[in-house]
Specification:
heterodimer; A: 587 residues; alpha/beta; Ubiquitin-like (UB roll); Alpha-Beta Plaits; five-stranded mixed β-sheet; B: alpha+beta; Glutaredoxin; 2 domains; 4 strands; binds iron/sulfur cluster; binds FE2/S2 (inorganic) cluster
Chain lengths: 587, 166
């Protein structure tokens, strides 16, 4: 597609750019940096903070580069004294009532505000604003909201409303009292928040962060009575490196496993093994529902953010959800039963830590129904970011570690388990297995590219054992909602649907390393990290769940067969509708 | 359920009226503000139950409605009393001790800023300069202005209103 090109001048540099783009985008092409704060490409383009102002000849006053479109012959100045002074004043006003405690802030060194203060050479503040302490919202098991650090950029509002379709955050009050919060100053724990954590990953500062559970893990590791084991989700290994300065999309499986050993975990397991188990159980469920006329479409249940969304917003689809627990919960149940028996340890002493790209899993682990053995399936969930903090705290030199592999038993996983980390991955893994089981012969091509990629809703029709299996994949909850509406209105029909709460799937989960706007606005994190996931899959000797020898062993030794009574006891669960704004005595 | 004294529960007869208001605007763009206006006329203020009903009826997230309600000063979350007391917090009043007047009012009425007394008679608010600086400190009760006040006059003023025939 040819786009009309126009000529503009930025800071004496003459360049040709496509018509209709913004001054900020044009400057990017010219390799000229303009500071931004509220801007996040495609998500928050509202021109609210005025950090990005520039001078444009022929226009009075300064213009916000992030929303101002270029036109032919335009002459733009990004570094005049007036521009610099204006940006400085804007920033100083924000800083004047900001809770400036960088030393103890989780976002220090990865904070867009801190970076701006440094770049704009802010010294002593000329204004010292009225500061008043607002209460911290730390009631949610997943998300902490600290309004004292909020710069009112509204990125989280746009994310929650326009991408996730949940809209539990908004801008309230006015003037000096303006605050971004849930309605009626409720806690995120009392509103229909899915705990997806996407708001955290777009927050430029430390105003939104995960509930830190590293203390609990340090404590468990120091407790000689406990048998502390850890499992890691597929998406963690393709993102953790970013926390240690590696390029986006670096695969760091070995360094991650080696670090976890150094931290003192008895065993380091791969959640992907349980992902393989999930596929066995879920495909069995799918086949059963198709053959017996059960509730269709079957919808995946690996994403706890999606599950909570369904409970709040689409309870009429709860019966469509697969009864499979998410893989790490399955794994936890297995560790406290099969593994405990095999190792001859009391299940009460087995302490399971899950390293997840996800904040919703912190909430999930606290669901009382997920305690198959009488003990919580998983004791603590840490995000990728929290693991990075523990590694730093333990002074482990992450970039220089010996090669290490996951532990047995249950160490080996298939490539199908690995691709769970990207949108479409669970679907593809299921198709690899379903097609062979139903078709009765090995597939020639096991890569299902129709369900890969970052498009919001993907559809595929796949011939499996004489049946045209209609499948759909949605990621990002607003897309999920749109897909469900289509089904509700009878505009679409499927057998099997994969839904992930986070845009791009787990690789872009709410617990993943945070990339600032000036990186993620110009590069698709979802695609870069997913690339690494698919490389990991391609390098594995076994790429189908049903061919994983560990999974076969588990069924032979323990479960009997997929969908058995024992499997149901340990690996399956049920969901219930949730009230959106339950009455509390706060009002 | 301690703080809510508004009795704005949706099983009262106003609920049906509210449903009618919502239905009337359901398919109009930008309906939120007029609906909020009419709902406030109906209830006198906009408590959470009313906002929840509007949220469901218009399919607008509650967080967004709350944002609108708290942005515009004409909307109120709290019930207003028959007598609306406003304490001027402009610079002149502030310097002349508006705070001690406010404290006295809080003490005598047993309510905080923004609240309404149990009997629905008084609500207490603070406001910006009302332009009567010469009389500072000043309070307004509905349209009546009381100036050059001292804290010990408050009790008498309140009694005067309490004794007014309803
Ligand atoms: S949010 Fe940024 S600027 Fe504020 S205290 Fe934290 S690191 Fe410092
Ligand atoms: S966790 Fe997700 S649903 Fe909850 S406030 Fe953040 S973006 Fe919205
Ligand atoms: S919480 Fe973070 S993302 Fe949301 S408005 Fe405040 S600074 Fe911006
Ligand atoms: S106005 Fe452009 S970055 Fe905020």
């Amino acid at each position: 597609m040819d786009r009309e090109m126009i000529n503009i001048t930025i800071d004496t540099r003459k360049i040709e750019v496509p018509k209709g783009i913004t001054v900020l985008e044009a400057a990017k092409i010219a390799n000229i940096a303009i500071p931004t704060l509220c801007f996040l490409k495609d998500i928050n383009e509202i021109g609210a903070c005025r950090m990005c102002v520039v001078e444009i000849e022929g226009f009075r006053g300064l213009q916000a580069a992030c929303v101002f479109p270029v036109s032919d012959g335009m002459v733009i100045w990004t570094q005049t004294p007036a521009v610099r002074e204006s940006r400085k004043v804007t920033l100083e006003l924000i800083l004047s009532n900001h809770d400036r405690k960088c030393l103890s802030c989780v976002r220090s060194r990865n904070c867009e505000l801190q970076r701006l203060a440094e770049e704009l050479n802010i010294g002593d503040l000329r204004f010292d604003g009225e500061t008043y302490r607002l209460p911290l919202d730390n009631f949610s098991p997943s998300i902490v909201r600290d309004p004292n650090k909020c710069v009112l950029c509204r990125r989280c509002v746009s994310m929650c409303k326009n991408v996730q379709g949940t809209a539990v955050l908004d801008t309230n009050e006015r003037g000096f009292k303006t605050i971004v919060s849930p309605a009626f100053h409720k806690s995120l724990n009392e509103v229909p928040c899915t705990m997806c954590g996407q708001c955290i990953t777009v927050c430029p500062v430390g105003a939104l962060r995960e509930k830190d559970d590293t203390d609990k893990v340090w404590e468990a590791l120091a407790n000689k009575e406990l048998h502390v084991v850890v499992q890691t989700a597929p998406a963690v290994r393709v993102a953790l490196g970013e926390e240690f300065g590696m390029p986006i999309g670096s695969r760091v499986t070995s360094n991650m496993v080696a670090s976890l050993r150094r931290l003192g975990f008895r065993k380091v397991f791969d959640t992907d093994t349980a992902a393989d188990l999930t596929i066995m159980e879920e495909v069995t469920e799918l086949v059963h529902r198709i053959k017996e006329g059960g509730k269709l479409p079957l919808i995946t249940s690996c994403s706890p953010g999606w599950i909570k969304y369904c409970e709040h917003y689409y309870p009429e689809f709860l019966e469509n959800l697969s009864t499979c627990k998410s893989p790490h919960e399955m794994f936890g149940a297995l560790l406290k039963s099969y593994y405990a028996a095999k190792m001859n340890v009391d299940p009460a002493k087995v302490f399971v830590v899950s390293i997840m790209p996800c904040t919703a899993k912190k909430f999930e682990a606290k669901r009382t129904e997920l305690a198959a053995t009488g003990y919580p399936d998983v004791d603590v969930v840490l995000t990728t970011r929290e693991l990075a903090r523990m590694i730093r705290e333990a002074a482990i030199n992450f970039n220089e570690l010996p090669e290490r592999h996951f532990d047995d038993p249950m160490g080996e996983a298939s490539g199908a388990g690995v691709i769970f980390g990207a949108t479409g991955g669970v679907m593809e893994a299921a198709l690899r297995t379903a097609a062979e089981i139903l078709g009765g012969k090995p597939l020639e091509n096991i890569e299902f590219h129709q369900v890969r990629g970052v498009e919001g809703i993907k559809e595929a029709e796949i011939e499996v054992g004489g049946l045209k299996l209609k499948a759909a994949v949605a990621h990002g909850l607003k897309n999920a909602g749109q897909l469900l509406e289509k089904i509700k209105n009878g505009e679409a029909e499927y057998h099997f649907i994969e839904i992930m709460a986070c845009p791009g799937g787990c690789v872009n989960g709410g617990g993943q390393p945070i990339q600032p706007s000036y990186v993620r606005s110009w590069l698709d994190l979802r695609a870069e990290r997913a690339k690494a996931i698919y490389e990991e899959d391609r390098d594995l000797p076994i790429r189908k769940s049903h061919e994983n020898p560990r999974v076969k062993m588990l069924y032979d030794e323990f479960f009997g067969e997929p969908g058995s009574h024992k499997a149901h006891e340990l690996l399956h669960t049920h969901y219930a509708p949730r009230e959106n704004y339950p009455e509390t005595d706060k009002n | 359920m301690s703080a809510c004294k508004c009795n704005a529960h949706l099983d009262d007869p106003r609920a049906e009226k509210l449903r009618q208001i919502i239905t009337k605007y359901r398919n109009t763009n930008g309906a939120l503000i007029p609906v909020l206006h009419e709902a406030q006329e109906l209830y006198g203020h906009l408590p959470i139950e009313v906002q929840k009903a509007i949220s469901e009826g218009l399919n607008v997230p509650l967080a967004e409605i709350y944002g609108v309600v708290t942005f515009y000063t004409q909307f109120s979350l709290m019930p207003k009393g028959k007598f609306k007391i406003q304490v001027c917090m402009g610079t002149a009043c502030y310097v002349k001790g508006a705070n001690s007047i406010l404290d006295k009012l809080k003490e005598k009425l047993g309510v905080d800023i923004g609240d309404c007394t149990e009997d629905g008679l008084f609500s207490l608010d603070v406001c910006r300069c009302i332009g009567a600086c010469g009389l500072a400190p000043v309070i307004m009760i509905n349209d009546e202005v009381y100036g050059t006040l001292t804290a010990d006059q408050i009790e008498g003023i309140i009694r005067k209103y309490q004794e007014r025939p309803v």
